[in-house]
Design a protein that fits this description.
about 300 residues; mainly alpha; three-stranded antiparallel β-sheet; about 10% strand; disordered N terminus
Length: about 300
Amino acid sequence: MMPVDSEKSGHDTAKAYTTDEIVALPGFPQCLSFCNQKLLEIHRKMPREVRYVADLRRWVMTHGALALHFSHQVDPTQPVLSATNLFREIEHIGIASPNTVTSYLKEIHARGYIIALPQADQRVRAYRMTEFSEKMFYLYLQISLQGLDLIDGAGRAERVNSDPRILTYMHPIFARRMLRDPLYYAPPPSIAPLVNTTIGISVLNEMTRAQKEKSTDDGRVYIHLGSASAMAKHYGVSRGNIARLLSKVQNAGHYGQNASGTWVSAQLLRDHHILQGLKMAHSAAAYREAQKMRTRELLCQ
């Protein structure tokens, strides 16, 4: 049996939070800025890979696929990643049909993000994630944990660096918490046009990462934002693609330009903060649960 040091286990100091608690904490703006910057850096380095899973529908299917993959890793009696099992995982959201799920798995298989498993019944296609896919989503979780540590200094990121197995436990918990949260899969109108498109989430991060001042009396927040051409170059899309996306947000009254500069609505900013606070709250809760599961696993060795 392997000894476990409770002082270093991580769940004595790593708190769980509600979304409202996270957003209200003094360290939340620093956490948000850090996570925004890290995710934008990844998108700029790997625009094709990130863009392929960036819109909400693909992101939902990806979370469901990873939840199945890592759950099966932890407990081989759990269902494998297959089209049928993935559809069951996300059916309640109503965002994809069985045919859409099947096509999605075929696409990411062709791109090398998943590998087909040998099956006795050749009519049933089962898969596992590649090592590259696992590492990408480990990194995604680690960025969230680093952001949480900026809020409370609980040392989550250091703990998972020394014991990455925690992340294997953490992802299914995190993914299923997100997939059960209507705010995640039915975002508010101010940001829906952005999170429902492949490039939109990065544009949203660009729009919300650097505000010049607090909200004005007319509900506008002036921001620093690069040109459509610059964003297109960063993310490997056409300028027209970015311009059309910004036009949708502008027509909805949540973005614009005037003599004072570029602005977004205070509503858009609040909704973005709530969505990010939700993600951080689910990350914090998932980490605590995963850490406890990992501790029990070590005690049984």
